[in-house]
Design brief:
- This protein is an alpha+beta fold.
- Helices cover 47% and strands 12% of the residues.
- The chain has five helices and two strands.
- The protein has a two-stranded antiparallel ribbon with strand order 1-2.
Length: 148
């Protein structure tokens, strides 16, 4: 519930900045794990919003991301975008927990905060574009290529 969480999140970030606490924040902006059902829901949502239909990612939830980047501006220096390609396809939670996936490919990209848009709407659009790129990388990967 963003309305309930917003003030609390902003207060936490203010305390971290004020106390100069080193921060490494991991945020999964998809909000949940990818499943066939959730991908179908994401595709329905994207279609209703006249967005490109995702094939391998969910639609990112921008509010928390924007609040994190805005709240930690001047305190953290970069955003890292990590894309994971699973050889043999996306594992189930059970397969993942049991270690039944033997090979993954990672693509890590670093974006200095100073180069990101400052306006919340522009930052949300920036995030959406990263996910369009991520979806295209995964499409190439699962077609037999690489994440690069």
């Amino acid at each position: 519930d963003w309305a309930a969480d917003r003030q609390r999140i902003e207060a936490v970030f203010a305390k971290l900045r004020g106390a100069k606490v080193p921060v490494w924040l991991v945020s999964f902006v998809e909000g949940t794990r990818l499943t066939a059902a959730r991908l179908a829901q994401a595709r329905e949502y994207a279609a209703a919003q006249a967005r490109e239909l995702p094939r391998h990612v969910l639609v990112p939830r921008a509010k928390g991301f924007v609040a994190s980047v805005t709240g930690l501006a001047g305190h953290v220096v970069a955003v890292y975008d990590v894309t994971i390609g699973y050889v043999g396809g996306l594992p189930s939670l059970w397969q993942w927990a049991k270690g039944r996936m033997r090979e993954v490919h990672l693509d890590v990209r670093r974006y200095p905060l100073a180069e990101l848009p400052a306006a919340p709407e522009a930052l949300a659009a920036w995030l959406a574009e990263r996910f369009r790129e991520k979806d295209a990388r995964l499409e190439r990967f699962y077609a037999g290529g690489s994440l690069a």
